[in-house]
Amino acid sequence: MDSSEDPKNDMNICKENSQSSVTILLHGFSASSHLILLLVLSIIWACKRRTMPTFDSSKRMLKNSRLFYYWPTLISCMGLCFSDLLLCVFNYLSGYRYGWSDLKFVAELDFTFRTLTWFIISAYLFIQFSHSSEHRFPILLRIWWAFYFLMSCSYLAIHLGLYWKHLSLLFLQWVSDGISVTFGLFLCYVGLFEKGREDEDFNILEPLMKISSSRNNGNNRQSSSVDGETVTPYANANLLSIFTFSWMGSLLALGYRKTLNLEDVPQLAICDSAKVVFARFRNKFESNGDNLGSSGQVNTLKLVKALILSSWKEIIWTALFSIVSTLASNVGPFFIDPFVQYLSSPHQQIYKGYMLVFIFFLSMLIKCLSNRHLFFQLRMMGIRVRASLFALIYKKSLRLSSQIKQVHTSGENVNLMSVDVERIAFFSWYLHDIWRVPTQVALALLNLYRSLGLASLVAFVVTMILMLANIPLGKLQEKFQGELMDSKDRRMKVTSEALRNMRILKLQGWEMKFLAKIIGLRNFETRWLKKLLYTSAMSTFVYMSAPMFVSMVTFGFCVLMRVPLDSGKILTAIATFEMLQGPIYNLPDLISAVIQTKVSLDRISSFLCLSDLDLNIVQKLPKDGAKVAVEIVKGNFSWDFHSPNLTLKDLNIRVYHGMSVAVCGSTGSGKSSLLSCILGEVHKVSGAIRLNGTKAYVAQSPWIQSGKIVDNILFGKEMDKERYEMILEACSLKKDLELCAFGDQTIIGDRGINLSGGQKQRIQIARALYHNADIYLLDDPFSAVDAHTGTHLFKVMRDGRITQAGKYEEILSSGTDFMELVGAHKKALADFNSIKGGAALNNLTNGEEDYNMLCSENSIQDDEEQESKNYKIEKLVESEGQLVQEEMREKGVVSLSIYWKYVTAVYKGALVPLILLAQILFQLLLIGSSYWMVLATPVSKDVRPHFKGSTLIFVYVALTLGSSLCVVIRSILVVTTGYKTATLLFNKMHKCIFHAPLSFFDSTPIGRILNRASIDQSEVDTSIPHQFEELLISIIEFLGTAAVMSQVAWQMLIVFIPMTVTCIWYQQYYISAARELSRLVGVCQAPITQHFTESSLGLTTIRCFDQEERFMNTNLKLVDGFSRPKFHFSGAIEWLCFRMDMLASITYAISLVFLILLPKGVLNPGVMGLTVAYGLGFSLHGVIWDLSSLENKIISIERILQYTYITSELPLLVEENRPSCEWPLQGEIDIINLQVRYAPHLPLVLRGVTCTFPGGMNIGIVGRTGSGKSTLVQTLFRMLEPTSGQIWIDGIDISKIGLHDLRSKLSIIPQDPIMFEGTLRSNLDPLEEYTDEQIWEALDRCQLGDEVRKKEGKLNFRVTENGENWSMGQRQLVCLGRVLLKKSKVLVLDEATASVDTATDYLIQKMLREHFSKSMVITVAHRITSILDVDKVLLLDNGRVLEFDSPTKLLEIKSSSFAKLVKEYTERYTP
Q1: Is the predicted pLDDT of residue 228 greater than 70, yes or no?
Q2: Cis peptide bond prior to 1224, omega within 30° of 0
Q3: I need a labelling partner for 1159 at 20 to 30 A (CA). Which of 93, 164, 697, 1403 fits?
Q4: Comparing C-alpha atoms, which of 178, 447, 455 is closest to residue 338?
Q5: Which pLDDT score, from 0 to 100, does residue 505 have?
Q6: Which residues fall within 8 angstroms of residue 1080, CB to CB, at 6 or more apart?
Q7: Of all residues in the chain, what percent carry a pLDDT higher than 90?
Q8: Which of 1467, 1468, 1469, 1338 is nearest to 1408 (CA)?
Q9: Stretch among 147-161, 942-956, 990-1004, 1265-1279 having the lowest mean pLDDT
Q10: How far apart are CA 1338 and CA 1321, in angstroms?
Q11: C-beta separation of 1249 from 1229 below 8 A
């Protein structure tokens, strides 16, 4: 008896000594930590106290006591101080009464230092911090609170472990742990979620932002507003609301009752606004020595460093959440073996079972809280990163030099904004996986070592081999990802260019050629997409199968080395492998994300390294009364600073204030380049430019912002009504605005698509005049600028040099260059005398008529008064509406038809059942392998095994390999279905877009289309197939887990059913708001892209007017508009997931209670342990999460499908009504009662036009701006289908034949000359129908042959985006070359010579007369010289035919409108 008790006593003594050592170590560590903090705090705050200014007692106020968390924090610190003081007293009394042991002595020191530390902290908060101007609790305190919480949790876990080993603990230790964890948790959250303060970086922006906040005296909380709008409830939420995400309740309730609009979504808190976030990022970026205005100094490392430094606090907090989550995740597998032992032992006390249930529940609760707030903060970080990069790229784009813009296209930049920024922001999800994955693997292997010993080393080796095997896959993914992005850039470049110029493509009948080009680029892109997706599928297969391979090798090693296996060890290992599956499954995604993010960071860094506009090109002189306004001294300039050929040479100019200067020269001589030099847009090789005063610029190619007309005129200036009305009158815009249903509030379409060329030009001039500048730079505003040439100073240019300068009369008599230009003009005017003789013209010239032709209401008063009355009546009858409407978004539940169309797009959905079958088989084989291992092994090592070790492993290997095979089959099928469906949707959407009528492009900003072609298409390419796969995995896994848990006790169904019903109700309640928020995210992203593209096109104008800051602020506002629904969508997801996790934790705890209440021996303890192991991952949250994520992602399919149902143009070919190859022979055009409107909700533009153009004649169409000239031309080409009426050409009703047959037989030189990126040859002959000889002949005829022969590559000379490396006049001559090649019988010139000089205009007219003498030539012109020798003139006014007769007859009638127009022209342009 005695001999048997001695070992037990020795064992108990060893246990007590071990317990005492551990407890002393813990108290010693705690005491040391508090002592160190106490010393550090004392030193820091003593130094601060000495340097702090003295406060006037009369002005002292508790600045920080208004913070919501201030008083709870102070009370918590005082509570810890008081509780530690009580523990110190109780421990002292215990030591005094029962004697002082080492443990009690060290504990006394610990409690003493704790009391002092928390007393110092409390004193600081009450005395010093409350009167300081600090906006946040000190970072040292916040770090300490987080460390204290983690230390308290660790102590609690260690004490629970000691207690489980039957070691008694002092009651004071349990009390201390409870108090420390409770208060520590609160203080930890205070450090993270403190609200009601401006961020420290916000001080930078105080002058820039309007902040209004009102105090609610009833509850002493802030109710903030930004620009009059309500701020998110998150900004003022209390602790419980933040814990449970209840602050989202009001928005979710509103979304459940009604369809959410952007106005319903609250504003972001000030600290999360794009201005503050970007200011913080910019400070960090520039503190590294990288000024945002500089170039060539940015690399990927510096960009990453700035992103990290601007978000380092969020990174630390999310890291702490990750640590807590990782530790909580390991608690479950650690306690599975004790739980199985408890179930298998017949004499266990019931309270131990409940203790285990509580531990499981607590670990799941902590994991739930940490995961939810971790994911929410990661989303917040993503929103901030996205805002920073959006602003960074936009700010850089405003500084790009004009030379760089020619080689770095807007299509590439759109990809940076849409794809690359999104990928970098999304990387926040994987940020902590870089260290978390190896940490989770290490913890899992340590847990495995506790159960299986040395066999865990084998598992470690196998895991490392599998990880190393992923290196080549990762390199392949990086290569494929880079190639995919490059190919996407090329596609988006062509797509963007085609959409911008869709009007000319349709007029020329080239849209199908460009569509084929885009589809070809997409096919090339798809090759890399397939390689990337299949590589990702292989990577997913390897790592999803990795846990099974690891378990197979590990169990095989155990059998081989005769390591005893029982159910408890098997279940611990299975649970560990299951936990290991998470990090291993995330590893391929992590590697892919790192690769994609690196590629995107490299691309953005390369963009930031592009050269900026040199701000020192132009020297701005102070306004000191100097007479000189513009001066250029010995100036040499070049658009291409790498080229030895100068664009402008030896310029010497001096212009004084009050002087008017006209710059003349032939096409391509450098006139526009001279203005660009003055603006500082051209690279200066040598010389000096000096400017004195503000400047305004009117571009040759009008740049109009999409938006209201009034905003385009004001352009950032305050409204001065008197000046505004005066300028409208001066620019002849009054009549145009009267004809608009909404006046100056009319919304202009993309690039001013719904305005005529003259209207756009005059709006530009009005913009310049309204800015009241000192220097006006007008680039050929021919149709709207008054020209008293006798008082002008002229400068004549040739080959980039000023050849003559002086007064008009001086240089007219002194040289040939100017004489050549004026001679052509005089010759054109002299031709009037051949029409009817000089008498009629002289009479007209001497008559007293209204001066301004364009706003002349008196000249046609009788007719226009009647028109005005009719139009006002029509405005009342017709439905008023803007041409550009808000972007359409679906509302309500995403239709099941969307899902059905997606899954049945390929092979009519034949692959879907195979995917489903593969996943079901995988889950069954996985569960079967677990059951096999549990049932085939004994409950404990004392029981004999049921099967041989070889049989055990053989069956397990077979089941494992079978499940792995199912994984690879499923992955390949998903990838195949995904990319084939993406290709089909891409082709269908683009075909519908390119077949859409022109009205679609008039009313749809390009950004909306580009968003679908870029962002939504990327989602369809990669995200949506993966999301479908994730949902399928989650559903099958949940059903499998529920089946495993329910087969142990049917009573669990009583819990499962209401839990499932509650989860579904929560999901339905949540999805109404979340769905609309997700749609709003898509809708609000398009304006960012649109604004970016628009700003890039008008960069010269923006910089001239010094509007960069205003445009930057607009960009930041648009980013805020995008971030608002994004932020609240993130909150909605976490609101749902928190409730899902809580329900799952409660259900799991109840199921464990059922297990411990079952009578012993009813079920196999191993099977019940398997239920516990599977239950650790049990949650409907995964299913709901994936379902909601899929519904949010599927909106991309919904948006793409919207554009597959666009109303299409009529057929390109009508086989039964195809005209003959020779049609038209004469070109006779009959127009019968033609009525046209741009959209059903807009007024008529043409109102019953009836006339006949006899074949072979030359017809001129004239009229004031907006009279319907260009609309008539568009109707002739069937760009607009008539509301009523007909057009016949050579006896064929053009509405009956195919569009391609019509447009290919007609030719047009458009109002806006367009060139496409590519070669000169591809611009002249995109359909590749002509030989080089024919092309050279056409170039020589249009005066471009010699110029092209000088260029490198000749016909293969590179044309940059928008033809930026060609002058406007040269572009127009290229358009003439296209017409000469086509040789059509019907030719339309739509103000075609507006961009060339008078001499070139005269040559073009002469050339057209020679080569198209037997063709029908219709000329729409604002220069009278362009229609001097026409056979008939058609004068339109307000959409009606006012006059139609020969010029001779019309000039004979003194009161005719045409005669008045000619008089006006001669008065204006005769010196």
Answers
A1: no
A2: yes
A3: 164
A4: 447
A5: 87
A6: 260, 261, 262, 265, 889, 1125
A7: 7
A8: 1338
A9: 942-956
A10: 11
A11: no
Single-letter amino acid code for the residue at 1134:
E
CA dihedral 1359, 1365, 1367, 1372 (to 10 degrees): 10
Radius of gyration of the chain (CA): 39
Residues 6+ apart with CB under 8 A from 435: none
What is 557-586 written as a DSSP string? HHHHTT----HHHHHHHHHHHHHHHHHHHH
Burial 1341-1364 (b: 16+ CB within 10 A, else e): bbbbeeebeeeeeebebebbbbbb
Beta bridge partners of 1249: 1234
Residue 711, amino acid = D
d(CA 1151, CA 375): 28
- For residues 91 and 94, give the distance between their C-alpha atoms in angstroms, rounded to a whole number: 5
Contact 262, 1121 (CB under 8 A): yes
Exposed, middle or buried, 1091 (CB in 10 Å: 0-12/13-18/19+)? buried
Where does residue 409 rank: exposed (0-12), middle (13-18), buried (19+ CB within 10 A)? buried
User: What are the b/e assignments for 1375-1396, b being 16+ CB within 10 Å?
Assistant: bbbbbbbbebbbbbbbbbbbbb
**For residues 629-639, average pLDDT:** 85
Instruction: Give the rounded percent of residues in the chain with a pLDDT score beyond 70.
Output: 78
Model confidence, pTM: 0.66
Question: In which band, very low, low, confident or very high, does the pLDDT at 1454 lie, cut at 50, 70 and 90?
Answer: confident
**What is the rounded CA–CA span in Å between residue 1135 and residue 1139?**
7
Distances in Å between the Cα of 1469 and the Cα atoms of 796, 1261, 1384, 1466 are 18, 20, 34, 5
Among all chains, which residue has been given the structure tokens 């007029």? 507
- The residue count for the chain: 1471
Closest CA to 792 of 765, 822, 763, 826: 822
DSSP letter string, 627-638: SEEEEEEEEEEE
Token duo for residue 143: 């770090």
As a whole number, mean pLDDT of residues 501-508 equals: 86
Q: Which residue has the higher pLDDT, 1103 or 1364?
A: 1103
Q: In whole angstroms, what is the distance from residue 1403 CA to residue 1016 CA? A: 50
Are the C-beta atoms of residues 651 and 674 closer than 8 Å to each other? Answer: yes
Residue among 1244, 587, 369 at smallest CA distance from 873:
1244
Establish how many alpha carbons lie within 13 A of residue 471's alpha carbon, considering only the half-sphere containing its beta carbon: 4
Q: Region 366-392: what's the mean pLDDT?
A: 89
Q: Once rounded to an integer, what is the mean pLDDT over residues 132-146?
A: 73
> Under a CB-based contact definition with an 8 Å cutoff, are residues 1145 and 364 in contact?
yes
Q: How many CB atoms lie within 10 A of CB 39?
A: 11
Q: Which residues are within 8 A (CB) of 99 and not within 5 positions of it... i.e. 6 or more apart?
A: none
- In this structure, the strands spanning 1416-1420 and 1258-1262 are parallel
Q: What local confidence, expressed as pLDDT, does residue 166 receive? A: 56
Residue 1303 has which token pair? 């447009």
CA angle, 643 as apex, 640 and 645 as ends, to 5°?
Answer: 100
The pLDDT of residue 921 is 93
**Beta-strand relationship, 683-691 and 628-638:** antiparallel
Q: Which long-range contacts (CB under 8 A, 24 or more apart) does 614-618 make?
A: 614/401, 614/680, 614/683, 614/684, 615/293, 615/680, 617/680, 617/682, 617/683, 617/684, 617/689, 618/678, 618/679, 618/680, 618/689, 618/690, 618/691
**Among 1173, 1175, 1176, CA closest to 567:** 1173
Q: What share of the chain is helix, strand, coil (3-state, %, to 5)?
A: 65, 10, 25
Q: Which residues contact 180 (CB under 8 A, 6 or more apart)?
A: 80, 148, 151, 152, 155
pLDDT of residue 216: 37
Residue type, 547: P
Once rounded to an integer, what is the mean pLDDT over residues 152-173?
A: 70
Contact call for residues 389 and 604 (beta carbons, < 8 A): yes
